[in-house]
Every structure is written in C-alpha cells, then in structure tokens.
Amino acid sequence: MVYNGGGLKVDTGGTIDNSGNIMLVANDVTNDKFETVTPASSKFNLVYTTATNYGQLYINGFSQANLNTGLVSKQFKEVKHGAYQQIGLPFIGKTLSDLTSELGKTFNNTRYSGNEILYWDNPKVLSRNLSTATVTTAADATRYYILGGTGLDITTANKTIVGKPFADPVTVTLNGAGAGINFGVNGVARNIYNEKYNSYVSDPFVTPAWNNTTSNYGKDMYQLANPYFTNLDLSQIGISEANGDGVNIPGLVGIIIQPSINNVTFNTTTGSADVSPNFVTFTSGLAPSGDVDKLVIKPLQSFTIKRSNGAASYDFPFANLRRFAFAARTSFTGPISVTGAKNANRSNSGSTIKQLGVIALDADGNEMGRTYFVVYPNGVSGFNPEVSTQATAGKDNVIGTFEEKAVDGGVDTNYASQYWLYINEANEQDFKGKPLEMDLYSPAIKSLKFEIRENAQLVDAGVKVLSTGTGFYYKDASGNISEASQDSVIPVNGSQYNLFYGKPDAVLATGNAEAKPSRTVIVYNQSIDNYIVRFDSTWKKADIQVYDLSGKLIMLKKNVPANQDFTIPLSKDNRAYIVTAVSESGVKAVAKIIR
C-alpha cells in the first residue's frame, strides 16, 4: 500500500499504473489537489488483473473542486448479467455518451431496445430512461445504472471508464421507497411507462408475494451502487459496534447482491427479472446469514437494501465502509487506516446464529445452486410474517427448502405451492431435531457440499459440533441419518433430503418419505381475468383436468407444453371447480378455484 499525505499531480506525459492500493489523504483542504495535468497524456490508471487483483484508490479530505482537476482511468472486467447490465459509475461530471466508446457499443435513448441507459428510481420503484447527453452530478454518486446488454461485451477483455472521482462525504437517505404507490392486486397496476409492476418488481424477503395488505412487499427497497474506487464491506451495516464503522441501519432486513452470470432476463411481455442473485439477511444484534462471503461490493458493482415497514429515515454514510480487503469482515476491523487493528473476539454461544449451507454440484464439481438453513435462539419456526432471516428461492433454482410445520417439521402444504426458500429460518430450541425438507430439482446434481458457519464465520474443515454442543444432520433418500461436517461432500442418492439442527429421534429417521412438493401452481392472473397453470421448471408437459364439485369431468387437455403458462378456458359463471395438473412423471398439483 502507498500512503500519500497531501496532493498528487501527474504531469504531462506521466503515468501511474496502480495494481495495488493507494491512499490519497489531503492535509490542506483548500490547496491540496489531485491533478492529471494533460488529460491526453497524464494517466492515473487503476489496473485490473483478475477479480481479486485490481488497483484501488482511497481518496479523503479533498474538496470536489480540487478533485475535478484529475481523471481516474478505471479498468474492469465483469461477468455478463444477461439482457441488462447493472453498474455503478463513480464519476462526477461524466457524459453518458462517453460509454459508447469506452464500452465498445452504441447506446441510444430508445426504451426496450437493449441499447438504452436507465437508472433505478427508488422512491417511484421503476427504471427511468436517461438521455445519452446526461451529465452525472454529486447527487448521482450511489445511482444504480442499468445498461442495455445487446452487443455489450465486458467479459472478454478489460474495458476502461474515465472520469473525475466523487469527493467525500457520500451519503444517501433511506426513506420512503415506494411510499404511496399502489401496486394493485397482485401487482397488476401500471407505472408511468405503462409497465405492470409485477413484470419487474420482486421481493424475496416477504412471503407470500404481493401480500401488500399486511406487508411492504416491493417497498422500502433501495437499489444502490458503490460510489468509490475501493471495495465496500457491508457485513456490519446492521450491527451496532463499539468503535465500529458508524453504520447501523435501523430496520435492516436484507441485502441483494448484484446478479451472477446471465441471470437478468427480459422480454417485452413479462418484463425483467434477476433469476438468481445472492441474498444476505439480518436480525437484530446478530451476525448476518446467507451469502455472507459476497458482502464485499467492488468498484462499479451494485446492491439492494431491504428495510422493514415503518423503519425510521436513515442517512446512510458510505465512507467508513471502504476496505482494500477482498473478504468481508467476520468481526469488527474498523475503517481503513494505515494500521488496521483487528478484533476477532467471538460472541457468546447463547446469541450466535448457526448456518448450514448446502451446495449442489454437478459431475465436474461446479456449483449449480445452494440453499441455507439458519437457526438461532430467537428464530421463528414455521410461517410467520415476523421471520427476519428468510429469503425466497426463484422458480429456476435447482435446490431449496419449503416452509416447515412449526410443531412437527416437514412441509407446510399451506404454503408449498406459493413459495420455496433460499434461506430458511427456525428456532434452535423448539425446532431441534425436527425435519426441514430439502428438494433437488435437477438430475444434473451429482453431489452436495456442506458449508457450516457460526456468526458468519466458517468453522474449521471437518468440524461438526458448534459452540452449543449441537450440530446439523441430514437424512438422505435411503433414510440414513448422518451428521454434516464442514467442507464435506456427499454423493446424491435421490432428490429429497431432510435437514436437522440437532440429532433427530429414531422415530423421525424411519418411515416413508413424503412426496416431493411440486412448484407448479394454479393461480388467478388479474391481468387476463382468468386462472392459469404455472408449471414447475422441471416439467416438460402435463395433462390438465377440470372437474365440477360433483366429480364430473368438465375439461381435459393432454400433453400441454410446460414451458409457458396455460390459461384454463372456463366461462365466468361463479361456479367452483377442482383443477389438477399431472406431469409426464406423475407429479400432481391440485387446486380449488371459483370462476
């Protein structure tokens, strides 16, 4: 690391290629400047080598005017998100049309073209078009941009974006996102662009979906981006620490980390969706859970914060979250300083959060998906709107768990057809030894790997027992119960497993397995004023049967393609029907409807 107290000038013909870490700290706010004297030949380059080896620049104590005399050339490479690319632009006074030459594709002002530039409007819960003539201002420091992905290649070779850095402090107010907006029943209301909210709004932290009468589904969500040329560590932003980073967001529910490769989909009918991002959840006074190793946000990257309904307005300061490290803190390390002291003390076992991660691997050992089982003393077993560490899984996830029955364990069939879970919460006392069903939905899954954490920290390889003297167990498809150990890998012998915190009773280890829940649902679609069958992604075709309440067959459709929704053709006469959908392998979904 290079520390520079005072100003820095890169003279004509001079170049700084930074592959490491540089700190620029002004001693005299009036006179100290960051300068690249001749933009054409004076270069301050932040070099990108790999995803964990790139130059970072920390700037502090300069006025914006004294930073406007310098340009930073930020090299980067990023996985392709899909139809649209999510990005931050940590540059003030930058004209968006410059991105055409910098990123090697032509941007325009046409919405839905795949070539437009959008930004996310948190208060209004929509993406707004930006003219390519737009020039960024100080208010845009944390803005979350969405770039049309047609012809965009930022994966094959390094790209370089050039601009003036933002001055400290960078703060964004978290308050009232979505306040006063009526999404309509099941999200069928339309925004100012005539787009249905349910075509792009999602909220993994609220179940069931569109439960707006008792929840803040799709609201109190803030999509933001890193405004700096250093990493941001979000791991402690929901924790009050002595001598900490000074960030403790009230009502923090969770964080969504920007999507992985090819996971943003779009079409003009259904809108856009992020198929499989990473999720982290928070509960008061405890460490985060879920994808806690993803909580370092790199320069140019984005994230989303979810807060609880009615949480107090909060001015979110970014400066103290800056870190050069590539791994999130598992305990407080303090803000960046020349001497970074570390406090690695662990919380007492009575207040720790225990987490079992199960990672689905293909034949080559590549990750296909993952799910988490989280327990802690105040955790909630079964369905309850007050759960604080849960996040739903998407329709295309290949591994997950279902909402459990609080008393006996197993699947709560009242909710199995409505959602399933990426992170599932239970109480470590009242759910001890009870089964949590985990299902696999891809024949390509060949093995499962266990990842065990306590208070967000990985335990040592081979460890089974946590600080409470208890560990996690699993029951495989053959009925065998084994204790899970950190970093162990087991072969897959079926598509249905049970997970346990604490060793189950012998009674729980025997008996016939329940049928694996189907993710096919029969639901009312407000936008077409009719009922539809929305199929499990593993189904290829289905037979659809409709009966009246006397048992008479009203309709039969055979070999219906399961790659799209099926609209049930019934006249509107206020009668009740039983609808069944049966897959090619005999899996059945049943629902009673009134049409």
Can you put this structure into words, describing what you see?
This protein has 595 residues and is mainly β. It folds into four domains: 1-70, no CATH class; 171-323, no CATH class; 350-509, no CATH class; 521-594, Sandwich (Immunoglobulin-like). Helix content is 1%, strand content 36%. The protein has one helix and 47 strands. Strands 29, 30, 31, 33, 35, 36 and 39 form a seven-stranded mixed beta sheet that branches. Strands 3-6-10-16-12 form a five-stranded mixed beta sheet. The longest helix is centred in the first third of the chain and has 6 residues, at 98-103. It starts with a strand and ends with a strand. The relative contact order is 0.09. The model is unreliable at 261-275, 332-349 and 507-512 (pLDDT under 50). This is T9SS type A sorting domain-containing protein. It comes from Halpernia frigidisoli.
Straight-line distance between termini: 69 Å
Write down how many β-strands occur, each being a DSSP E stretch of 2 or more residues.
Answer: 47
Cα Rg:
26 Å
Count of discrete structural domains: 4
Which SSEs are present, and which pair or pack?
Elements (H helix, E strand, L loop, with lengths): L1 E4 L2 E3 L4 E4 L2 E5 L8 E3 L6 E4 L1 E3 L2 E2 L1 E5 L11 E5 L7 E4 L3 E2 L5 H6 L13 E5 L4 E5 L14 E4 L10 E7 L5 E4 L46 E5 L5 E3 L18 E6 L6 E4 L3 E4 L3 E4 L7 E2 L5 E2 L4 E6 L6 E4 L4 E2 L30 E8 L5 E10 L14 E2 L6 E3 L19 E7 L8 E5 L6 E8 L2 E2 L13 E4 L5 E3 L5 E3 L4 E6 L19 E5 L4 E5 L6 E8 L4 E9 L4 E2 L8 E8 L4 E7 L1
Parallel strand pairs: 1-4, 2-5, 3-6, 4-9, 6-10, 30-33
Antiparallel strand pairs: 7-8, 10-16, 11-15, 12-16, 13-14, 13-15, 17-27, 18-26, 19-25, 19-28, 20-23, 20-26, 21-22, 23-24, 29-30, 29-35, 31-33, 32-34, 34-40, 35-36, 35-39, 37-38, 37-40, 41-42, 42-45, 43-44, 43-46, 46-47
